[in-house]
Structures are given as C-alpha cells and as structure tokens.
C-alpha cells in the first residue's frame, strides 16, 4: 500500500467509501461520481503501477469480483428491458 495513492487508501478503508465487496486481494466500492447506477470500482489492495505488474492471484480476484458484482448489480438494478443498461467496473491502479 502507498499512503499517497487514493486507490490504496480507499481499498484499505482509510477514506470514506461505500464498500460493497472485499476479499484479501480487492476492495469494491461504489463510485462517488458514477457514470450510471451501480458504477463500481474494483481496487487491488496492493499498489501497482501498471496492469502488467498484477500477480495471478490478484488478477483472479479482480475477475471473480467482476462476475459477483455483475450478478449482484443486475439482480439489484433489474435492467431487463433497459437498452441503456451498462455495467461499468473500473480498475484503479
Ligand atoms: Zn495504490
């Protein structure tokens, strides 16, 4: 974790955020300025400078969280019939 990194501070709950899922590798929070309902940030708990640096376990955790969040958000937001529904998940590194 880098204390100067906003993503790290949010992932480690040093900043106020609406946490909706976490495991040992990632923390998932609702964006404070969402593009649409359910806009969620998936934040690795370890600090990375580039996508290529992310280890296999964290990559797996990111995709596991993406699938879980997709199911949960689709269930909660009931997007059936809404042509404009789009899930936005951001990776903040
Ligand atoms: Zn960071």
From TrEMBL:
GO terms for molecular function: hydrolase activity. This is Diadenosine tetraphosphate (Ap4A) HIT family hydrolase. Residues 6-93 form the HIT domain. Pfam families: HIT. Keywords: Hydrolase. It comes from the Bacteria.
């Amino acid at each position: 974790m880098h204390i100067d990194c906003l993503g790290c501070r949010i992932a480690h709950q040093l900043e106020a955020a609406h946490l909706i899922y976490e495991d040992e590798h990632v923390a998932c929070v609702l964006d404070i300025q969402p593009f649409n309902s359910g806009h969620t940030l998936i934040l690795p708990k370890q600090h990375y400078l580039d996508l290529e640096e992310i280890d296999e376990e964290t990559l797996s955790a990111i995709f596991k969280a993406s699938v879980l969040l997709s199911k949960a958000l689709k269930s909660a937001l009931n997007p059936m019939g809404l042509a404009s529904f789009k899930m936005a998940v951001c990776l903040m590194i």
